[in-house]
Design brief:
about 450 residues; alpha+beta; 3 domains; 3-stranded antiparallel beta sheet; 15 helices; elongated
Length: about 450
């Protein structure tokens, strides 16, 4: 028995009568010789989608004209004057779409619209979303490669420059939206945690090697998933890194004395539920830039517990790299004192180590560590007791803002160099995607408004 599968596109009128009928694919049904022969291949599916999409676009072209009943020059009635084709780009396919031309017979004024002029952009919002998410996650060239695989071929609309432009366009809109956000609807939270940290990325500026990027994440410290949906509400905090269930993120690459980050971090805290009655736990890496952001938030909550990030302390000790076994034991003892909230004792041990060092590099490292501890004496707590009480005290227990917002996309791409403006826009997209439900719920509004704004 010979069978075939036939795919047909029909256009029907209101009465259900077939207006047009097109066969777009006929595929014989044969025994599959391999898994690859089972069903349609990717290229076949996209080719059929191309025809189906074009059939609908051809019918919609009847309505595609400028809404201009009278001539803008002489106010005379205008008439139709045929069609003109323009580009339209869907998620998987590219098309030529007909739009109606119009003319004034009196003064010869003409209307020759395009998809771009009618809608503000010739890229479908779904494609813009895919480009943006790919551009935010991968390097622009890698994103180009992935999109070529998805479309089963290279498309000029998905070249890395276009992906970069789309990502930055939407990032710019998000940065402006944050500054003019009037839809803050706080849901009261009794306790919140704020992590502020910074990282460095390579720059395109000729006179500099890198610049600092600042990040902040605001979350409920009781809602950290340590695997299998298990939340640590009571007892010792897990030593494993968890996933934040509810959070808001903010990031900035601007050289503006943290002005943008302060504003967006405050807005994020309010969106996360901060009120005048909320107690805040602030975990920072120890630089003035980080604590300045906390200072901007402090007047808007009930109280702030400031904690020097234990993970940051541990990393500082690991960077010592002492060769002498006796000095390494003293360093462990110093860290032991810090763990129990005795920074003065730790300083004594570190001074002893410093007095027994001769190598310039070791002296520099120990001097930096001493300066780091002295500058943050007021933020060093009894970490051991806080651990026993099941309270958060380090960024290691939850998603690191620097890791999730910066390093995964920027720092590990060693060959990449960034401008502050370009990276700032990219970070707004990554922050929006990482914030619970923000991107998923509002991406269509973000994309459509950003793309039309750029076209205007």
């Amino acid at each position: 028995m010979n069978l075939s599968v036939r795919v047909i596109v029909e256009t029907i009128n209101e009465a259900g009568e077939v207006k047009s009928h097109s066969i777009i694919n006929i595929k014989p049904v044969i025994p599959p010789s391999s898994l690859a022969a089972l069903g349609y291949r990717q290229a076949e599916q996209i080719e059929m989608l191309q025809y189906i999409q074009q059939a609908l676009l051809d019918e919609q072209s009847y309505f595609l004209q400028e809404d201009t009943p009278k001539c803008p020059r002489c106010n005379n009635k205008i008439t139709r004057n045929g069609y003109v084709k323009s580009n339209f780009h869907g998620v998987y396919t590219d098309h030529k779409v007909s739009t109606r031309k119009q003319i004034c017979l009196k003064c010869k004024w003409k209307s020759i619209p395009s998809i771009d002029s009618l809608f503000g952009c010739a890229i479908h919002p779904d494609l813009a979303r895919v480009q943006t998410e790919m551009g935010a996650k991968y390097s622009y060239r890698d994103a180009e490669h992935v999109l070529a695989l998805l479309s089963s071929k290279k498309r000029s609309i998905n070249n890395h420059e276009r992906i970069k432009k789309t990502t930055e366009c939407i990032g710019e809109y998000l940065s402006l939206l944050s500054r003019n956000d009037n839809i803050i609807q706080p849901q009261v939270a009794d306790n919140l945690c704020i992590q502020v940290d910074g990282g460095y990325v390579n720059t395109v500026e000729a006179d500099k090697n890198c610049f600092e990027v600042m990040t902040a994440v605001i979350f409920d410290p009781e809602l950290i998933d340590y695997g299998g949906g298990k939340l640590k509400r009571n007892g010792p905090v897990s030593s494993l890194r968890g996933r934040l269930i509810s959070k808001h993120s903010a990031a900035s690459a601007l050289a503006d004395q943290q002005s943008y980050l302060k504003q967006t971090a405050l807005e994020s805290a309010i969106k996360q539920g901060m009120t005048k009655d909320t107690s805040i736990t602030a975990i920072c890496g120890g630089t003035d830039n980080c604590w300045n952001v906390i200072d901007a938030i402090a007047p808007h909550c009930h109280d702030v517990t400031r904690i020097l990030d234990w993970f940051d302390i541990v990393m500082k000790f690991e960077n010592l790299s002492l060769k002498n076994k006796r000095l390494r034991e003293k360093a462990k003892r110093a860290k032991w004192h810090l763990w129990r909230g005795y920074p003065d004792r730790a300083i004594i041990r570190l001074e002893e180590i410093k007095n027994n060092l001769n190598e310039k590099n070791d002296l520099q490292n120990i001097t930096k560590l001493l300066s780091y501890i002295n500058n943050n004496l007021g933020y060093i707590i009894d970490y051991r007791q806080r651990h026993k009480n099941g309270l958060i005290f380090t960024s290691q227990l939850s998603e690191s803002t620097v890791e999730s917002l910066i390093n995964q996309r920027c720092h590990r791409q060693q060959h990449m160099r960034w401008s502050r403006k370009g990276l700032h826009f990219l970070l707004q997209v990554r922050a929006s995607i990482s914030t619970n439900n923000s991107w998923q719920e509002h991406w269509e509004c973000y994309v459509s408004k950003a793309m039309s704004k750029t076209a205007a």
